[in-house]
Amino acid sequence: MAEGTSTSINIPQLIAVALVGFLAIRWFLNKPSTTTTSSSSSSTSRGRSIDVSKVEQVSAMFPQLDRRTIAWDLHRNGGNVAATTERVLAGRGLESPPPSFQPNLPLPAGSSSTTGAGAAGGNGGGAVKRHNAFGQPDLITRYNLQSRISGKGKEAVPSEEQQRNAWSADKSARAEGLRKRREEMILAARRKMEARDGEET
Amino acid sequence: MNSVASKRLFQEYKQLTLNPPDGITAGPVNEDDLFVWEALIQGPEDTPYAGGIFPAELKFPKDYPLMPPTMKFLCDIWHPNVYPNGVVCISILHPPGEDPNHYEQASERWSPIQSVEKILISVMSMIAEPNDESPANVDAARMWRERKGEFDKRVKMDVRRSLGL
Question: What is the nearest CA distance from B113 to chain A, expressed in angstroms?
Answer without folding.
Answer: 20
